[in-house]
Amino acid sequence: MSQNDPLFVSQSNRKGVYHFLLIALVIVFLPRIIMFFSEKEDFDISSSEIIQLKDKQKWKKKSFYQQSYNSKKKKYLRPISKFDPNQYTINDWLKLGLSQKQASVVLKFCARGIYSNDQLKKIFVIPDELYLKIKDSTFYPIKKENKFEQIVPIENVRKKVIVELNSASQEELEQIPGIGPFFAKNILKYRDRLGGFISKEQLMEVWKMDITKYEEIEAFVEVNKALIKRININDALAEDFKQHPYLDWNIANSLVKIRNKKTKFKSVEEIKESVLIDEELFDKIKHYLTL
After folding, report:
1. What's the half-sphere exposure (Cβ side, CA atoms, 13 Å) at 258?
2. Per the count of CB atoms within 10 A, which of 54, 56, 58, 246 is most buried?
3. Residue 253 and residue 212 share a domain
């Protein structure tokens, strides 16, 4: 090939190309050759070591949930001395184990005066466990009777109406002094969500109901617990549990998962295996559950 040919490559240029290709090949393959002949680290693990690791992880997981459960479980204390519930402050109730909200409700009831353990027990926010711890340490003032009762003209005396909360219609609720269409509808809505009232004090949970309104109507209502609608915990779906005002979606899901592992619940108390259900919540919800 003549030097005037455009495709002509001189011998020196060809040598340069060969050298370039050789260097490129060395750069590409040298690291692979080094890695191939390098000593390999043994990452093998025995089957017994795998089992130990799995058991360790399971123990950590179980320990975490057990700690969560213990932290959720309420601990109620006995009073250090005899006491008059009417004189207890919010801090005194907190020391016994009530929450801020529970203690506030108790103070509202005590503000009008309570004079027996029967009245104390009817305060729905006091759990049975705490009541049993304090009932033998209480004392009460003697209730003073008003000797100068106001004489009311007979034409102004209104016939006392007693309404059963779990069967009453809106019209019957509106017969209660102080209850109009607004509160009657709210009571019915909450009754349907609950499945019925187990105590008339639960009226305090109705939207817009306060202690003043409750005191105005409590003498006109009664409760028949036999009319409560209960949730079958072995048949209910998560959506069914969630409809109840005392339960949320997370609790509903946890109950279904626990039931699936067990096939079915053998007692209502088994729902306490959920770390999301403490003693306080169980005391509230147990009346609405069945097998």
Report:
1. 22
2. 246
3. no
